[in-house]
């Protein structure tokens, strides 16, 4: 930390996510947003003026090469997460990277190793676990209201929400996959978080690509267009077996013929109760009900949760960790890496057409063929 105690921050990426990081750093006490980087000249100039940024760069390499930034946020297309994060960590900065950690677990492992070698923090932005309704379910788990969670059905489904046909999102090499790696990683994170981080022992998955390859289900617009054919899934379903006999069923899609345009949530079953959350069209707070009772008498309790602070909460927690050097080694990106390993295993299972067992490190055992 600098002698002044002021944290000097940089943000790579000028899109929606990058702007969330910029706003959070700008609002945080004892933080100076010093530099931003991104290819869009007009947007970069506008954001530099809005946040009174000292320097704006077209190339991320120039921002990292400054060497005077304490923290760097990485909010760019997935194929750039690993190279930028590794370079920033080696330059001595703590890194807050958008989800997923990387295209593959192998890339994620390289990021974790860079964090460990540099003695710096690497955290992944799982902002949905900071929603007020998700935190309300977690409180019901922690205080024993629903007993021991043993099964969950969790989903994020869109009717017509392929981010941009022909963009990096639909290019397998650049994105690492479709809705499973894009949306499903959030679903995995909040579900495992709510269930107390149980160990996954086996994964069975199926993926489908029925609408995207026909040019259907796009949300309009092109982000970083590549002219790519549609190369990823548009729907995935996953069964996770948990140590101790628990289970999770996860479903995620970018495009599907369904009633609501965009919905995510979870139904959680516990030994003494349960919870059901549905969020339609990104409502700040979803419809949440906690179920309790002894089987004969039922008590269904609607819960009105306050909106969470999303990226602002994630950034604040990240900054708390940065200010506590004793905690740095505890925050090396392993949570993000564990999610990447499960996504990799799900894709491998879908390709193999069978369930794949996992060892204690979430590595596939017995091969994927």
UniProtKB/TrEMBL annotation:
This is Gfo/Idh/MocA family oxidoreductase. Keywords: NAD, Oxidoreductase. Residues 7-125 form the Gfo/Idh/MocA-like oxidoreductase N-terminal domain. It holds the Pfam family GFO_IDH_MocA_C3. Residues 135-274 form the GFO/IDH/MocA-like oxidoreductase domain. SUPFAM superfamilies: Glyceraldehyde-3-phosphate dehydrogenase-like, C-terminal domain, NAD(P)-binding Rossmann-fold domains.
């Amino acid at each position: 930390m600098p002698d002044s105690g002021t944290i000097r921050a940089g943000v790579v990426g000028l899109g929606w996510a990058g702007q969330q990081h910029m706003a959070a750093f700008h609002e945080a006490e004892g933080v100076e947003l010093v530099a931003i980087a991104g290819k869009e000249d007009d947007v970069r100039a506008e954001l530099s003026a809005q946040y009174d940024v000292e320097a704006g760069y077209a190339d991320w390499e120039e921002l990292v090469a400054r060497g005077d930034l304490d923290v760097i946020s990485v909010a760019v297309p997935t194929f750039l997460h690993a190279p930028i994060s590794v370079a920033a960590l080696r330059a001595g900065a703590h890194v807050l990277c958008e989800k997923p950690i990387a295209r593959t677990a192998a890339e994620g492992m390289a990021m974790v190793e860079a964090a460990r070698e540099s003695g710096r923090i690497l955290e992944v932005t799982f902002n949905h676990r900071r929603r007020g309704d998700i935190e309300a379910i977690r409180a019901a788990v922690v205080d024993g209201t629903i007993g021991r969670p043993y099964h969950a059905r969790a989903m994020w489904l869109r009717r017509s929400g392929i981010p941009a046909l022909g963009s990096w999102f639909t290019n397998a090499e650049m994105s690492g996959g479709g809705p499973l790696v894009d949306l499903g990683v959030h679903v995995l994170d909040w579900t495992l978080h709510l269930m107390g981080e149980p160990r996954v022992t086996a994964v069975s998955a199926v993926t489908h690509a029925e609408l995207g390859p026909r040019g259907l289900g796009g949300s309009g617009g092109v982000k970083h267009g590549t002219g790519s054919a549609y190369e990823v899934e548009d729907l995935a379903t996953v069964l996770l077996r948990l140590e101790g006999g628990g289970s999770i069923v996860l479903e995620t899609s970018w495009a599907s013929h369904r009633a609501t345009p965009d919905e995510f949530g979870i139904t959680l079953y516990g030994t003494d109760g349960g919870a059901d959350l549905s969020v339609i069209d990104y409502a700040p707070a979803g419809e949440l009900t906690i179920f309790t009772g002894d089987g004969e008498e039922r008590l269904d309790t609607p819960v009105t949760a306050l909106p969470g602070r999303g990226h602002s909460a994630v950034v604040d927690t990240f900054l708390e960790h940065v200010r506590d050097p004793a905690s740095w080694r505890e925050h090396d990106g392993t949570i993000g890496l564990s999610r990447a390993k499960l996504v990799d295993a799900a894709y491998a299972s879908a390709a193999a057409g069978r369930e794949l067992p996992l060892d204690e490190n979430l590595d596939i055992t017995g091969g994927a063929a």
